[in-house]
Amino acid sequence: MPDILAEDVDDAPAATVLRERRRSGSALWWPLVALVSAAAVAYAVLNRRLTGDLQYTLGALRTGGEAGYSPSEVFTHRPYFYRWFIAGLDSWTFGTTTAREALIAAAGVLLAAAAAYALYAALLRRVTGREAALTAGATGLALALAPRNDFLQAEWAAVVLTVVAVAAAIGPERTWRAVLLAAVPLALAVLMKYSTATTAVIGVLLVYAVDRGRAVRLALVSVPVAVGLFGVSLLAGSHEWQWVGDMPATNQSTLGRTGIHPLFILERSVDYLADRAVPSPVLLLVPGALLLVLTRVRGRRRRIELSLVALTVGLCAQAAVVVQGNWFLYHGAPMPVLAAAVWGLAVGGARRSPPWCFGAVSLLYGALPVLYTAAPRGFQRPYVLWALGLLALLAALVDAVRERREAGSRRRSAALVALAGAVCLAGCVWPGSPHLVRQGKVTVTSAEYLREGRLTEQEADRLRSGMPADAPVLYLAFGNTAYYVGHPVQCRYPAATFLQRTRLIPDITEATSYKENADCVDHDPAPYAVLDPRWFRLAQVAPDLRRRIAATYDCPPASGESRLVLCRRR
After folding, report:
1. pLDDT tens digits along 156-192
2. How does DSSP assign 465-498, residue by residue?
3. Does residue 189 contact residue 199 with C-beta atoms inside 8 Å?
4. Which whole number is the average pLDDT over 96-120?
5. Angle CA 399–404–408, to nearest 5
6. pTM score, whole prediction
7. What backbone torsions phi and psi does residue 357 show, to the nearest 5 degrees?
8. Per residue in 267-292, pLDDT tens?
């Protein structure tokens, strides 16, 4: 803070600066902001646990690895570079399941912190120290405290890489050096899941808002780099091209299958954005934050340009959700991080008095995930969330008017408002917060998800007691079952995704990957199979597949409250 205070007092003696610092109280409040943020991150690392999709990936990589397949050669429903990213994080973990998850989470937090620091260092060349600190700090905290559904997903990893790319693009003084440094992480962001190309586009747009020339050069250089790295993945993985072609076939909701229906997309997007705001209330603050930022921009033409950039960024973030067609919350993982960055810029850029009204709303919305989840079902409606977004916009409008009237006043510390932002970003990590939301309704709470995970772990313990140690298994269950059971597989398809999809997508049997996955059933079959009757419904899969499973394995009916069935080879 000394450099910012110096802006206000110019060449005042050190004693005057010290008096100003004491008067503002910032020397006491900023450490409190850091302490609250660190405590929330530590709590998340120890208690958040991993989401089922990430357990799916880890379970496939671990059980496939024990069978001798590297991340290049095992199917996990995620592309090559993301598989190696997760395998790298997992490689240094040890201990119980809880300990390993905490270590992976800690590694993810360190990556978020590194990306935030890179952004801070780059922004110092462009904006004041307070703006840089709050923008980068809010970005890093949004990544570290991301909802469980987002954290360490391919979309989340793409955001981290994009933050690094933006920092590399706007930081160095030499343009071409900056562009070359930024091109690789930006290209890797595309390759995390391919639909994450929209996140890379957002990165280019953010660079454009700062430096048009660098943005154009970055786009031109990143495309061939991405193509080159994609070629590397095809050469390094013997099945990668096959999986790139077959993976989209497992999704029955893509626009390629359903067609484009503009009215449905518009209505569903309105609901989705409300759903996304429940675990990430910082999204409700975006309109107000943009208002605060734009009112400080000089020149009508520049304000219009930045407004169009912001609109395009929002459309890109939503496009990734629409194209995939499943409307999963984690498909919008870039949204809260972008919202946090804009929030930090809005608060940090206050010329004199911080936006107190906006900060008060930010503080209140920190409790929204828990309060909304506990609210009566009749209150859980998308329009309620949109109304809360309007309230934040009105609060920002009040602050914008007040800031103009106080143009000549002494600059005050923004520490209290920063504390409100930290509380807002931490709202999604508490046990009472939502895990899943659909059309305004909280369908699963965080506590319920953790309880479900403990039950699955107990079921896995029961199954392991009925098998010899390390006996190979065919998993006819969702990937997190392989994660908890942990027995090795005997083929490169630890999760029977292609087989399970036959009950939803009959033409998937034409895919080469389906045929290879089906061969896992009766070509050198494992001595045991684990069946989840809820996920892998034998009566509904392809008839030929059902016959092959019945001819190879004896699967008793599920008994009592058992969720999983242990089948033995005939």
Report:
1. 999 999 999 999 999 998 999 999 999 999 999 999 9
2. HTS-TT--EEEES-HHHHHHH----SSS-SS-HH
3. yes
4. 95
5. 120
6. 0.91
7. -65, -45
8. 999 999 999 999 999 999 999 999 99
